[in-house]
Amino acid sequence: MTTPTHGGSDAARSSTIAAADAPNWPNLIFEKLREFRVRHVTYVPDAGHARLIELCQAAHDMEPTVLTTEEEGIGILAGAWLGGERGVLLMQSSGVGNCINTLSLAKVCGFPLLMIVTMRGEWGEANPWQVPMGQITADSLRLAGAIVYEVTQPEAAAPAVEAAARIAFNAGLMVAVLLSQRMLGTKLFKD
Amino acid sequence: MNQHNELARRSAIARILADRGDMLVVTGLGSPTYDCAAAGDHPLNFYLWGAMGSAVTVGLGLALAQAKRRVLVITGDGEMLMGLGALATVAVKRPDNLAILVIDNEHYGETGMQCTHTSTAVELAGVALACGFRWSTTVRQTRELDDAVPTLHTAKGPILVVLKVSATRDPLVLPPWDGALLKSRFRQALLGAQVA
Fold first, then answer.
1. CB of A41 closer than 8 Å to CB of A33
2. How far is it, in rounded angstroms, from Cα B156 to Cα B152?
3. What is the pLDDT confidence band of residue A190, given thresholds at 50, 70 and 90?
4. Dihedral of CA A65/A67/A70/A75: which sign?
5. ipTM at complex level
6. N or C: which end of chain A has fewer CB within 10 A?
């Protein structure tokens, strides 16, 4: 991974990247979410999700909800499903740690739970505080009963979301797509 | 807080749910779940038996998905304290069909009646107002409950009512705890038999 992408920069800078240079995978994920009639987009922001969040906020038929902590999204999506609607939880890998006990809600009731997780502390991370959670994100999700797809190449992101959405919504399972720092880039804390 | 609370939770909840109409109810784990079951099991009750702190967020998701139906979250002070941030999220989304009732006995009833923060310092109605709820109040007396019942059913949300109740141990009334069953019967009752 040599080309810097917006996912590794801070959010403010990412929005200034020219469209021609911006990666296309957020648009392709967005199209998959629409295809699967995802309405509720719950998230704690992450730079890696910035473009996808913008797209969802601009979509008139989507209901974006900012969370104070990631596990709120599990409850909101459970309630939305009770009411007949679908959603997705967008978060950074650090947020997975916040979710662990609340995942029992989705697990024990068989609520579909589609999660798209941008990784930190996983590949060439500069901030050591991100590393402990980043190194156990995939294992933690699997221990909690989620299916995990790890994506390292941008072109594999949308197909992974499609596969995850199909399993989650058809079978009432928890499925997480982890987007690696290998494709997002690594935040280097430089101006 | 630090006052003698006299209201009885079981009779108060029975009264609030007596004329529920087509209201959708989400309950927080522990005594609020038993109180609602004691008032009469209902397919449009979704009981939480775990995932502490999630009652309000489940109610929020349901209120957003079913904007034309009244959604009432009935939870306890301990459960509410674990998810205080959810009040901020609700206030930002501002669903006008969502009401929250916190049955506040100032104790953790399931674990040996240890004191919660509401017994000494925290006013949950004030927290809701500070977050940006449209309306919130604390109910301590029967005549205040008289006013709160129609408010919970019809006032424009998001609203939160704190019901200060005596710290009694009432007989256990246990609704089903099979989560898949609770989910499916709720969806069938709300959305029709085809959804499962």
1. yes
2. 9
3. confident
4. negative
5. 0.97
6. C
- What are phi and psi for residue B26, nearest 5 degrees? -120, 130
Under 8 Å between Cβ of B42 and B66: no
Q: Kindly determine whether residue A108 and residue B50, on different chains, have CB atoms separated by under 8 Å.
A: yes
Q: Which of B54, B69, B72, B100 to mutate to test the interface with A (most CBs of A within 10 A)?
A: B54
Domain count, chain B: 1
Domain ranges of chain A: 6-184
d(CA B107, CA B119) in angstroms, rounded, equals 7
Domain, as residue range, for B66: 9-191
Residues A146, A129: Cα–Cα separation, whole Å: 25
Rounded to the nearest 5 degrees, what angle is found at the Cα of A108, between the Cα atoms of A121 and B186?
A: 125
Q: Average pLDDT in the B153-164 region?
A: 98
User: Distance between CA B150 and CA B21 in Å, rounded?
Assistant: 12
**What CATH number is given to the structural domain containing B131?**
3.40.50.970
pLDDT per residue over A68-106, tens digit each? Answer: 999 999 999 999 999 999 999 999 999 999 999 999 999
As a whole number of angstroms, the distance between CA A74 and CA B47 comes to: 16
Instruction: Out of A79, A81, A104, name the one closest to residue B60 (CB).
Output: A79
What is the tens place of the pLDDT at every residue in B41-93?
999 999 999 999 999 999 999 999 999 999 999 999 999 999 999 999 999 99
Chain B contact for A88 (CB, 8 A cutoff): no
Q: What token pair was written down for A160? A: 């992974």
Q: Is residue B72 part of a domain?
A: yes
Q: What rounded mean pLDDT belongs to chain B? A: 96
Quick: pLDDT tens for A103-140: 999 999 999 999 999 999 999 999 999 999 999 999 99
A102 touches chain B (CB under 8 A): yes
Domain A6-184 fold is Rossmann fold (3.40.50)
CA-based nearest residue in chain A for residue B94:
A65
Task: Give the per-residue pLDDT at A14.
Answer: 45
